[in-house]
Inverse folding.
């Protein structure tokens, strides 16, 4: 299928952007802080989830499923009102699942954000209010309680059915509540074990792990060792045991130049190509050309002659097919060791992002592309 104008960026602009990103990367000679490259083992987030009700939906709620009316009946019973579920209507109510991530070291009484999503057939959660909902961890214990008005960032309006028209923006059945949950239980976190802390690389890499251990040893001699591509163990030197937070702060502020692998990521759905600065293309020859086939169907009317007593008007279809192939030649590409040279060579060919994707795939199969190719 041919690329639609306006969806894909021109290849020249795209590769110019890659060159700019490479230049910015080269300018960061001092590298990145350890706190941006790694996390402390034990200081991790935890996931919470809960089941609740959103009320006040002005007719956009669930269409009376059994679990919704039963949930409403249970809620009323909690407040001392007992009614049969079969007598309830739920058009102003929706059952929802509430999810949240609770960071490490969150104390009791602090707040976290929550995401609310409809479980039933509610049309919209716009204007709804979440009723107090306990949020449970994987161990079944309550760690936070959520409640508040939803912000959905979208809308759904109009009349459904024959002759109606509806307008929808974003997803009106999913909403958020900023600071919508109160932390009721702190999750215990242990970051120091036997006078050691362990750093976990966000992007595992043996070279980056070795560089990080070496950088820490420059500031705190003989204190760290890389255990594998992800883990670096750091020993707290004498005198720092009583101030572990200060020690971790000093370690996190150390700058390290992480090793970035040669990698090209292609997203065919959006036409996006991202390449790291280390990609290299060995000498090869490329032929670039496009074949365009257009087929047009037309309807023509065949009518009898004037004043004819016989015959009838007949509609006859006709099809016209055109084939156009752009001329191209086998163009040799030299050894291209930098992303700027790759960008310049492909720009000279005048390729589009769609063609560039096919060329990268073919170069990888031919063994000329010295980079990991990831297709989304």
């Amino acid at each position: 299928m041919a690329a639609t104008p306006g969806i894909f960026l021109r290849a020249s602009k795209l590769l110019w952007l890659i060159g700019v990103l490479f230049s910015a990367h080269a300018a960061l000679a001092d590298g990145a802080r350890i706190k941006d490259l790694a996390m402390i083992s034990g200081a991790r987030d935890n996931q919470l989830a809960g089941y609740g009700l959103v009320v006040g939906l002005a007719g956009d709620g669930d269409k009376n499923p059994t679990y919704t009316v039963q949930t409403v009946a249970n809620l009323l019973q909690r407040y001392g009102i007992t009614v049969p579920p079969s007598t309830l209507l739920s058009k102003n109510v929706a059952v929802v699942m509430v999810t949240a991530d609770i960071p490490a070291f969150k104390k009791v009484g602090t707040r976290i954000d929550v995401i609310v999503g409809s479980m039933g057939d509610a049309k919209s959660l716009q204007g709804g209010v979440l009723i107090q909902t306990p949020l449970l961890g994987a161990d079944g214990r309550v760690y936070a309680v959520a409640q508040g008005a939803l912000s959905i960032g979208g809308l759904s309006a109009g009349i459904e059915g024959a002759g109606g028209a509806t307008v929808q923006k974003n997803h009106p059945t999913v909403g958020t509540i900023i600071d919508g949950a109160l932390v009721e239980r702190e999750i215990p976190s242990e970051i120091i074990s036997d006078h050691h802390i362990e750093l976990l690389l966000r992007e595992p890499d043996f070279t980056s792990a070795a560089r990080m251990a070496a950088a820490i040893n420059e500031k705190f001699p003989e204190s760290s060792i890389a255990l594998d591509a992800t883990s670096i163990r750091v020993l707290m030197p004498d005198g720092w045991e009583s101030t572990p937070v200060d020690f971790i702060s000093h370690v996190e502020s150390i700058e390290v130049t992480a090793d970035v692998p040669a990698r090209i990521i292609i997203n065919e759905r959006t036409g996006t190509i991202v390449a790291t600065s280390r990609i290299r293309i060995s000498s090869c020859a490329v032929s670039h050309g496009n074949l365009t086939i257009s087929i047009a169907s037309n309807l023509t009317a065949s009518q009898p002659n004037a004043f004819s007593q016989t015959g009838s008007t007949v509609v006859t279809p006709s099809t016209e097919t055109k084939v156009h192939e752009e001329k191209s030649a086998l163009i040799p590409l030299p050894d291209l060791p930098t992303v700027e040279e790759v960008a310049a060579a492909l720009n000279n060919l005048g390729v589009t992002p769609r063609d560039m994707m096919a060329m990268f795939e073919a170069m990888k199969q031919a063994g000329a592309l010295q980079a990991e190719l990831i297709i989304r």
